[in-house]
Amino acid sequence: MAALQTCLNIDELRLRARRFLPRGLFEYIDRGTEDETALRRLRDSFEQAELTPRVLVDCSERHAGVTLFGRDRPLPFVIAPTAAAGLVRYDGEVLLARAARAAGIPFCVSTQSITSIEAIAEAGAELWFQLYVWRDRSLTHALLDRVAACGVDTLILTVDTAVSPKREYNRHNGFNVPVTPSLRGALDVARHPAWLGGVLLRLLAEGGWPGYAHYPPQFRTRITDAASHDPIRLCDGVSWDDVAELRRRWQGRLILKGVLAPEDALRAGGTGVEAIVVSNHGGRNLDSAPAPLAVLPRIVDAVGGRMTVLADSGVRRGSDAAKLLAAGAAAVLLGRAPLFGLAAGGQAGAEHALAILWDELERTMALLGCRTVADLRSISFPGIDAQSS
Ligand SMILES: Cc1cc2nc3c(=O)[nH]c(=O)nc-3n(C[C@H](O)[C@H](O)[C@H](O)COP(=O)(O)O)c2cc1C
């Protein structure tokens, strides 16, 4: 824990995560897609957006809390869905859920998590569930019944992954699906004994190579197996009809994640979904995709308050989150930041990542003369206006 406290920002947690994790797993988390243009664009978007300080505003009573979907939350963050977080640390998804609970924010469980929603629910956190639609829609609907039975009331449908993106480093590292055992991979793992002993050997001792816990038992493969079962392949035919069907079936809140075009945001508004996440998937999918910060104001304008607009991708500083909030996001999802924390120090590390961003956000707010997130939304924001014009 003492060592964790020496990490003063998310980049320092990232370096610690890089030391702990085998390279294949670290790069799977850290990197983007193809030429990693979208990833660079994310950093550029935040760095180029200036915030002008406002002076002599009494900010002694400031707080970054928000009311999101009718519930007060101490900070405007949600832990984003990330596949295979259970490989980062033993029981990683449960640890993330506990960190979210400690911070008073929701944790969104991925369809592709290593631990089942039923087991994660025992952590007592507010859970959301992220859905990838499988080719066999009836299996997808059965999964939703499982999710609803766990008391989950918020479903995020990820709509930006019509096909698997081309992430060449995963192929080089043997970290594609299936994970391809190789001498290079074995040496990589051997060079990271803390991960080998603390995660992989524990998982192997427990039941062999882990798999994706939400796949139906008859199709549940290990991560080292090809996903050869057609019914549970990622469906490349997901359309607005699926959104309408999900809207009919899912009693809770429905959110579309991965919207970047104002036209799509408008169309989403007509389907009865409660919210969208403006996201480029952390720069991991379409490599030419814009940064959310660049399109957010237009989307917020287009939606005109008829739907909640959330955002994510590339947040490494509290000031990045401040910019997304100032540009109109109701809350910000965090993907890699809590994962780096998780790798660096388990649940305490994930909590530390949230605490760092929370502290940085509140400092940014004070330096801007903002006492609340609502104040943040009213600041003039030339960087944003320039990007979105
Ligand atoms: C390792 C990893 C796995 C991810 N898995 C999923 C997933 O299963 N479903 C999904 O909708 N998004 C997934 N994402 C995207 C995140 O939900 C989120 O949009 C993105 O990480 C935000 O960018 P950030 O990591 O820079 O915060 C994943 C991201 C990472 C880094």
Question: Can you offer a commentary on this structure?
Answer:
Its cofactor is FMN. Belongs to the FMN-dependent alpha-hydroxy acid dehydrogenase family. Keywords: Flavoprotein, FMN, Oxidoreductase. This protein is of the alpha/beta class. It has one domain: TIM Barrel (Alpha-Beta Barrel). Helix content is 46%, strand content 11%. Helix 13 (292-303) packs across helix 17 and helix 14 (318-326) packs across helix 15 (336-367). The longest helix has 32 residues, at 336-367. The protein starts with a helix and ends with a helix. 50% of the residues are buried. The structure holds flavin mononucleotide. Residues 28-29, 80-83, 110, 112, 130, 158, 257, 279, 281-282, 284, 312-315, 333-337 line the site of flavin mononucleotide.
Secondary structure: elements and pairs:
Layout: H1 2-5, H2 10-20, H3 23-30, H4 37-48, E1 66-68, E2 71-73, E3 77-79, H5 92-103, E4 107-109, H6 117-121, E5 127-131, H7 137-149, E6 154-158, H8 168-173, H9 183-190, H10 193-207, H11 240-249, E7 253-259, H12 262-269, E8 275-278, H13 292-303, E9 308-312, H14 318-326, E10 332-334, H15 336-367, H16 373-377, H17 382-388
Parallel strand pairs: 3-10, 4-5, 5-6, 6-7, 7-8, 8-9, 9-10
Antiparallel strand pairs: 1-2
Bound molecules: flavin mononucleotide (FMN).
